[in-house]
Amino acid sequence: MSDVITFYLEMDSPEEHRNRKPKPERLEVVEARVKEGRFNRFLYELVGKQWGWVDKLKESDEEWANYAEDESQRTWVAYSEGAVAGYYELQQQEGGY
Questions:
Q1: What tens digit of pLDDT does each residue of 20-59 get?
Q2: Which of 10, 25, 58, 75 is the most core-located residue (most Cβ within 10 A)?
Q3: What whole-number distance in Å separates Cα of residue 57 and Cα of residue 51?
Q4: Largest alpha-carbon pair distance within the chain?
Q5: Other C-beta atoms within 10 Å of 83: how many?
Q6: pTM
Q7: Distance, first Cα to last Cα, the chain
């Protein structure tokens, strides 16, 4: 079994989030406003397979729901020509950003 390395993106100020880059053509990034743990699990499995994401695969549906449907959690999905191209999640921490 190989070691799992987890990377986190940390933004220390709202201004870091506001510096937008141009979006490639045919790419849409949409917030998943309906919170659904099964959808986040699907995204994790689909996107993470090629990257060897395995650490959260053992979690139950209830654990996924508690995580993904929390009010502090938000999910965005990138679509390229209608297919899932990636996704990211942001979780607001206590005290702001």
A1: 777 778 899 999 999 999 999 999 999 999 888 999 999 9
A2: 75
A3: 13
A4: 40
A5: 8
A6: 0.75
A7: 35
Strand partners, 14: none
Question: What does the DSSP 8-state code read for residue 59?
Answer: -
Contact 66, 35 (CB under 8 A): no
* CA distances for 86 relative to 32, 43, 62, angstroms: 13, 8, 23
Retrieve residue 77's tokens: 């999905």
Listed residue (73, 87, 79) closest to 42, CA to CA:
87
Strand order from edge to edge, sheet including 83-91: 27-31, 73-80, 83-91
User: What percent of the chain is modeled with pLDDT above 90?
Assistant: 60
